[in-house]
Design brief:
about 575 residues, alpha/beta, five-stranded parallel sheet, about 10% strand, flat
Length: about 575
């Protein structure tokens, strides 16, 4: 990555300047490489002179020498920079910035480097093979996915794509919350509706139970498939069996929805297994041994406050049943200790913000570094139509299910829009805009850019042109070089997104890349029928191939399709 190479070159130049006596020996701060806001300032910039000036002048004063200005300091660093093919010039400008311009001949050759990298272009080795688990989705198995969970699923899946591109070994997991009170209430609600379908009165839906139309529909499906067999057995046994059927119906619905969104999981992990396989007993023994438990009000509590949390948590309720935090501890013990993940990322809604300190306390109690657990919190999604908030499903008059929005705008628009804002920002999903087939719709605009490139390449092939053997050094037009520069940003975008867990950088970059390509297409005729332009046509076709690859790669990281025709 160019930024990394520049940082290393500047570091070596400072070291050499110190060795040769141009600069006193001081600590060298981390070298930041940024992009100037003004194109005339070059391709990259570093404020290293400003970062070092105080320490340098302190050392000079102690040695009886006059102080340097930041510009003078920068010039001494530049003087020791080696000559490398990709740097055309480095200028030092007030108040102390080193502005770096890339060599245009080298830029043109990067078209071939991009094509040679293929689908690995954009990959950066930040993870060095570390094992990271991303757990996302993980809604209670008590009904279809709500549209709000769509953001959870899209963020988690895209983050997993980015981490894989960032050199991590990634495992994607869906946690099935099938051991708590919610699944019990769901099963009881389903049983009541089942009996009602058969003309039998099984009482009311339990307090805190589920009243959605889908419960009625699924109960009818059980009747259609199983008949009245559950009426002939004791209620507890019937509820238990119907709960299992309902659980599978939920998971069937969830699996169908996530597959439709181009989301895939490596594992669907059952909460029940933590109790069936003895993990809960293991963590209880660990917590007792560490003196992290106490009794109060007939319940067993985790002493989270002693480990930095704001309040303690119930582990075993007064009724003898494990609390939800018992499952959290057991599950993360399984992740870190039993399965050996180096890093775990849980994607949770922002309403879990208060739970974060207690999760960190849990890590300390288990003897684990809290920094190995990251809780990525996201804000809610608001649906808009005709400028008004959509609160209820048009079909059922209840919550808006993910499937309804998927059927409306499609998976590509849904994924792109749900990624467009930072996770900690409120998300407004404008359905009217997402339906538009025009440049106003950002996903349509980006996909149209990819389809346009594909169309150009098909036309060239039909006209008998080939890009093989192209002389890319002919690419000297400002629009051509601007497109190459923008393509070379993808590894930087991936690196920054991985380091900050900021998936929204991808759709922003995709729109910028598509815009730069459209300018190139406007200003540079790609396929010319003039014999004198044959070599230039070949070079521009090669550039178009590279642009198609990079735009397609960006869309793939977002889980969005890259159409060949539109």
């Amino acid at each position: 990555m160019v930024k990394d190479e520049l940082a290393d070159l500047i570091y070596q130049a400072v070291r050499k300047a110190q060795k040769k006596g141009d600069l006193p020996k001081t600590d060298i701060p981390d070298i930041a490489i940024t992009r100037p806001r003004q194109a005339q300032r070059g391709d990259y910039s570093s404020n290293q002179p400003l970062q070092m000036i105080a320490a340098v002048n302190t050392a000079l004063k102690a040695a009886g020498h006059r102080p340097l200005t930041p510009v003078e300091l920068g010039q001494r660093i530049v003087h020791r920079l080696p000559k490398v093919p990709f740097i055309a010039q480095v200028e030092v400008s007030p108040p102390g910035f080193m502005n770096i311009t890339l060599d245009e001949g080298w830029l043109a050759q990067q078209v071939e480097a991009i094509l040679a990298a293929g689908d690995s272009f954009g990959n950066v080795d930040r993870g060095h093979g570390r094992r990271v688990q991303v757990e996302y989705g993980s809604a209670n198995p008590t009904g279809p996915l709500h549209v709000g969970f769509g953001r959870n699923v899209v963020l988690g899946d895209t983050l997993a794509n980015l981490l894989a591109a960032g050199g991590y070994h990634v495992q994607r997991e869906y946690y099935i919350n099938d051991a708590g009170t919610q699944i019990v209430k769901f099963g009881e609600s389903l049983y009541v509706r089942y009996c009602q379908n058969l003309g039998q009165d099984a009482g009311d839906i339990p307090e805190g139970g589920y009243h959605g139309q889908y419960v009625v529909d699924w109960a009818k499906r059980i009747v259609d498939e199983e008949g009245d067999r559950y009426l002939t057995m004791p209620r507890d046994e019937a509820v238990k069996l119907i709960t299992e059927i309902g659980r599978e119906m939920v998971l069937e619905s969830v699996r169908r929805d996530v597959v439709a969104m181009n989301v895939h999981y490596d594992d669907w992990f059952s909460e029940r297994s933590l109790y069936q396989e003895g993990v809960f007993e293991q963590i209880m023994a660990i917590l007792r041994q560490g003196d992290h438990l106490f009794m109060a009000d007939g319940a067993v509590w985790f002493n989270a406050e002693a480990l930095g949390a704001d309040k303690d948590e119930v582990i075993i309720r007064s009724n003898g049943l494990p609390g939800y935090f018992a499952s959290d501890i057991s599950y993360h013990y399984n992740k870190f200790v039993q399965r050996g993940f180096d890093w775990v990322i849980d994607v949770w809604g922002a309403d879990h913000h208060g739970h974060v300190p207690r999760m960190k306390a849990m890590m300390r109690a288990l003897g684990l570094d809290p920094e190995r657990l990251t809780l990525l919190l996201y804000q809610l999604v608001t649906l808009l139509e005709s400028g008004e908030q959509v609160r209820l499903s048009k079909r059922a008059g209840t919550q808006v299910d993910l499937r309804e929005v998927l059927d409306d705008i499609g998976p590509d628009a849904l994924r792109f829009f749900l990624l467009a804002r930072a996770a900690d920002s409120q998300m407004d999903l404008d359905l009217d805009l997402a339906r538009k087939e025009s440049s106003e719709n950002p996903v349509y605009y980006v996909q149209y850019g990819h389809a346009r490139i594909a169309s150009i390449l098909r036309y060239a092939e039909e006209q008998g042109y080939s890009a093989e053997g192209a002389n890319v050094s002919l690419l000297i037009h400002p629009a051509e070089l601007a497109l190459i520069r923008k393509m070379l940003e993808l590894p930087e975008v991936v690196a920054q997104a991985v380091e900050t867990l900021a998936c929204h950088q991808l759709p922003h970059y995709a729109q910028e890349l598509a815009a730069v390509f459209h300018i190139f297409y406007r200003d540079c005729r790609v396929v010319s029928s003039e014999p004198a332009d044959h070599a230039l046509t070949q070079a521009r076709l090669r550039l178009a191939q590279a642009a198609k690859l990079v735009l397609g790669r960006t869309l793939a990281l977002m889980g969005v399709s890259a159409p060949e025709r539109m």
